[in-house]
Design a protein that fits this description.
Layout lengths: L2 H6 L7 H5 L10 E5 L6 H17 L3 E5 L6 H8 L7 E6 H10 L10 E16 L8 H10 L5 E4 L5 H13 L4 E4 L3 H9 L5 E5 H10 L3 E5 L14 H4 L9 E9 L4 H16 L1 H9 L3 E2 L4 H22 L7
Parallel strand pairs: 1-2, 1-3, 5-6, 5-7
Antiparallel strand pairs: 3-9, 4-7, 4-8, 4-9, 4-10
Helix pairs in contact: 5-13, 7-13
Length: about 325
C-alpha cells in the first residue's frame, strides 16, 4: 500500500486538530445528502449519521434523499446536476464512484464532474464456503478450482457488485476459473450457498457473520489488508498464498459534491467528517458494522478514489464485463 493510500485509510486521530477548529463556512440554506442506494444499507446509514451530526452544528435542516437505481448512477447524476454551493451533497460508495466507470457502457456522468470530499467508513468482505466443500484454507480451495476449472460455482449479489468482483479478482490472481451464479441481493445468494447449490461466495462481513458463527458456512479469509476484529482467527486473503500477496478489497463509502464547490467548503466539510469519525460513538458504530474509519485530506481521498477506479477498470477489462446503465 502506498503512503498516500495508507494515509487516506488511517484512523482519524491525526485529523482531529483540524476537525476541532471552528469552521467559518456553512451552506447557504437547507442541505440534502443524496444516497444513490436504497434505504437501510451502509450508504444510507452513513448518510443519516452524518446528517444528524451536521444539523445542530450548522443550525439548518440537513435531509437525506434516497435516489436508488441503475447501480447508483441515477442518484449520482442528480448530484452532478446540482448547483455546487454545498446545499447538495452525496454519500457515495465504491460502486457508482469507482466500479461504474468501466462497468457501464453509457455512463451519464464523468469522474471530473464529481468532487471527493472525505472518506467515512470502509470494511471487508469475507470468503466463505459451504461446509461440504473439502477446503479449510484458501490454498485448498485454489487447488480444487484448479483441478476442476470452470466447474465449481460461486454466488454473488449481482453482476458488477463488490461481491462479484472480489472473487473475480481472486480468480484472476490465482489463474483459476469458476462459474458465476448472480443473484438479486445478498439474501438469495446466501440461501443458495446454505443449500449447497454453490460452493462459495465473498459477501459483506456483517451480512453473513451470523451464518459463520452458527457454522452453516466456513470463513476462509477476509478481503481487507489486515485481519478483522470480528474474526481475529481468520486470515487476510493476502496472507494465504504468494499469488494473493497484493490482494486487498474493501467496500468503502465517502462524501462527494458537484465539481466547482469552493475550496473553503471542501476544507470545512472534510473537517466536519473528521470530527464525526473521531467521536467514540461513531467508532463503536463502525465496529458494529465490521468496518473502520477512513479519513485524510480531500486530496488524499481523491487520490484513493482514482486508484480504486483504475484498479477495478483493469479487473473488469480482463473479465470482459460490460453492462448498460439504466
Amino acid at each position: 500500500m502506498t503512503t498516500t493510500r495508507r494515509a487516506a485509510l488511517a484512523a482519524p486521530l491525526l485529523a482531529l486538530p483540524l476537525a476541532a477548529r471552528a469552521q467559518s463556512w456553512r451552506p447557504p440554506g437547507q442541505t440534502r445528502i443524496i444516497v444513490p442506494a436504497a434505504a437501510g444499507g451502509t450508504t444510507d446509514i452513513m448518510a443519516r449519521i452524518l446528517a444528524q451530526f451536521l444539523h445542530p452544528r450548522w443550525n439548518i435542516p440537513v435531509v437525506v434523499e434516497n435516489r436508488a437505481g441503475a447501480g447508483g448512477t441515477i442518484g449520482t447524476l442528480e448530484m452532478v446536476r446540482a448547483r455546487p454551493d454545498g446545499t447538495t451533497l452525496m454519500l457515495g460508495n465504491i460502486g457508482p464512484q469507482a466500479i461504474a466507470y468501466a462497468l457501464f457502457r453509457n455512463m451519464p456522468y464523468r469522474a471530473e464532474q464529481i468532487l471527493p470530499i472525505a472518506g467515512t467508513i470502509a470494511g471487508p468482505n469475507v470468503l466463505v464456503v459451504h461446509p461440504s466443500v473439502p477446503a479449510n484454507t484458501v490454498a485448498e480451495l485454489a487447488a480444487l478450482l484448479r483441478a476442476q476449472p470452470g466447474r465449481i460455482p460461486y454466488a454473488s449479489t449481482g453482476v458488477g457488485q463488490s461481491t462479484h468482483l472480489s472473487p473475480v479478482l481472486m480468480l484472476q490472481m490465482l489463474n483459476a476459473q469458476s462459474i458465476h451464479v448472480p443473484h438479486r441481493g445478498s439474501a438469495p445468494a446466501q440461501v443458495d450457498l446454505l443449500a449447497g447449490n454453490v460452493a462459495f461466495m465473498i459477501d459483506n462481513l456483517t451480512g453473513i457473520m451470523g451464518h459463520i458463527q452458527s457454522g452453516r458456512v466456513r470463513a476462509l479469509a477476509v478481503t481487507s489488508r489486515e485481519r478483522n476484529a470480528m474474526l481475529p482467527d481468520v486470515p487476510a486473503m493476502r496472507e494465504t498464498m504468494p499469488e494473493l500477496a497484493t490482494y486487498e478489497v474493501n467496500t468503502w463509502f465517502g462524501l462527494f459534491a458537484p465539481a466547482g464547490l469552493p475550496a473553503a467548503a471542501v476544507t470545512s466539510l472534510n473537517a466536519e467528517v473528521a470530527a464525526l469519525v473521531a467521536l467514540p460513538e461513531t467508532q463503536r458504530r463502525f465496529a458494529e458494522l465490521g468496518g473502520f474509519a477512513m479519513h485524510g485530506s480531500a486530496e488524499e481521498f481523491a487520490a484513493f478514489v482514482r486508484s480504486e477506479t483504475a484498479k477495478w477498470a483493469e479487473v473488469i477489462r480482463k473479465e470482459g464485463l460490460q453492462l448498460d446503465a439504466g
